[in-house]
Amino acid sequence: MRFDVLTLFPEIFSGYLTQSLLKLAIDRDLASVHLHNLRDYSKGKHKEVDDRPFGGGPGMLLKPEPTIDCVEAVQADPSAGGPGRLLMLTPQGRRLDQPYVEDLAQSPRLLLLCGRYEGFDQRITDLLQPEEVSIGDYVLNGGEVAAMTIIDAVVRLEPGVLGDETSSQEDTFSRAGRNLEYAQYTRPREYRGLAVPEVLLSGDHEAIARWREQNAAERTQQRRADLLPAASRSDQPAADTTN
Ligand code: 6GU
């Protein structure tokens, strides 16, 4: 899986690329991330990439010429094996969720176009026809954190990236109607007066499975009843015994 990130701030990605599970995926040739600085495509004397909006208003917009030149150059890279799927990171976009992540993971190549300032000149969108993606209903200062979020969520679905012991198919949100994860404990058995539930120490695998299922169902009902099919939502949630 190949990711191309188009940004004014490629440095933001350096720690993420060298410190995370993504680094392991890159080292094992399961993923590659190519950073492209939009500023390198500015033909202006001062390498400008942004300008004030016509009609007035706050902030600066990404200019069409360097942005589109950068996208077209990256799309046309003959070593990349095809133009890939172009994503524009913007709070106006389609909201990311796990089914969308699973769909993105089918693509061999994603281009992630990050905006800064107040956004993009509309002609960038009109000409490039990107998929506009948002990671949630709040406003970030730029698309970089959103791009990292997408890469992080997509790369863990790439076969071989997660260890054998972990299955992304077990993840919360990986299909509709799934519960949140159950509570988990490690050593010590007691900490500041809080004991690990006895059943988890029992060695009784069936009892453990039942406890986990019950705990997951309770937490989901308490916290995220919106994830449950309407029919199984209780109107009167029980007292919260979950953590
Ligand atoms: Cl993709 N960009 C920005 N600037 N803010 C956001 C976002 C993206 N998704 C949620 N908020």
TrEMBL record:
EC number of the protein: 2.1.1.228
SUPFAM superfamilies: alpha/beta knot
Record field: catalytic activity: guanosine(37) in tRNA + S-adenosyl-L-methionine = N(1)-methylguanosine(37) in tRNA + S-adenosyl-L-homocysteine + H(+)
Keyword Nucleotide-binding among record annotations: no
Any one GO molecular-function label of the UniProt entry: tRNA (guanine(37)-N1)-methyltransferase activity
Compositional bias per record (Basic and acidic residues), positions renumbered to this chain: 215-226
A Pfam family matched in the record: tRNA_m1G_MT
Positions with a binding annotation for S-adenosyl-L-methionine: 115, 135-140
GO cellular component, one term: cytosol
Subcellular location field: Cytoplasm
Main location: cytoplasm
Biased composition (Polar residues): 233-243
InterPro entries per the UniProt record, alphabetical: Alpha/beta_knot_MTases, tRNA_m1G_MeTrfase_C_sf, tRNA_m1G_MeTrfase_TrmD, tRNA_m1G_MTases_N, tRNA_MeTrfase_TRMD/TRM10
Keywords annotated in UniProt: Cytoplasm, Methyltransferase, S-adenosyl-L-methionine, Transferase, tRNA processing
GO BP annotations listed: tRNA N1-guanine methylation
Domain tRNA methyltransferase TRMD/TRM10-type positions: 1-228
Chain spans, region Disordered: 215-243
Protein task: Specifically methylates guanosine-37 in various tRNAs.
Subunit organization: Homodimer.
Similarity remark: Belongs to the RNA methyltransferase TrmD family.
PANTHER family attached to this UniProt entry: TRNA (GUANINE-N(1)-)-METHYLTRANSFERASE
Name of this protein: tRNA (guanine-N(1)-)-methyltransferase
